[in-house]
Amino acid sequence: MDKQVEKSSLASPLIQISEEEGSSFGRERSSSVNVSRKNEFYEEMKKQLWLAGPLITVNILLYCLQVISLMFVGHHGKLALSGASMATSFASVSGFSLLYGMASALDTLCGQSYGAKKYHLLGIHMQGAMFVLVLVSIPLAIIWANTGAVLLALGQDADISEAAGIYTPCMIPALFAYGIVHCLFRFLQTQNIVFPLVLCSGITTLLHFVVCWILVFKSGLGYRGAAFANSISYWINLLLIGIIYETLPFLHKNLDRLFKGGVA
């Protein structure tokens, strides 16, 4: 008899909770879980916007370089504007888009290395990508040097093709800087370093107005000056990234990640 009493006492809960209290407790618990999930969602959204916002700004600023150049070319007549527009489209499709896509591979490679804390691999991927993109830029430069003939073969207007054939070769130096710049961008953004990129791109875009004005209106180069301005501005952007590397102390550790274990 005593054993049955002991078993029943062990089977019964120590604290008796009514059905109403139990349901209210369940509701409170579910509401607290929902609140915590909402907080996690908002925190994650803030992190995403904190990273995505500057990256969107950087891409817009870099795209503005081509637009600003075309604005200055527009002062030299319809033919010059048509040729420069055709050249810009041809350069984007045959060169810049290709290099941009190839540099995007670093989003995966550097992201995996950084997440696995294998920081020495960041430098290997980075330098390897730079080397490959510079090599790819060489045949692209040959294509750009013959833009006029390519456009004529594709059935474009002869005058516009000639104007584009003059404009595009002046942007060949931009090819090599463009690939290196985007490799550096990927290298930094995978480490959550994005605001220095906004600073470099913003300064470059502002200086591009000055460079375009000097080369288009003051140097006697005419609309070709806008193409040279593109090349100069991309190299200015690359130079600014190097200056910021040397200036900001918290980026010095990234120099070690860039050069230690690399192919150089």
UniProtKB/TrEMBL annotation:
MF-aspect GO terms: antiporter activity; xenobiotic transmembrane transporter activity
Transmembrane segments: 49-73, 79-100, 121-144, 164-181, 193-217, 232-251
Pfam families referenced in this protein's UniProt entry, alphabetically: MatE
InterPro entries from the UniProt entry: MATE_fam
Any one Gene Ontology cellular component term annotated for this protein: membrane
UniProt record similarity statement: Belongs to the multi antimicrobial extrusion (MATE) (TC 2.A.66.1) family.
Protein name: MATE efflux family protein 8
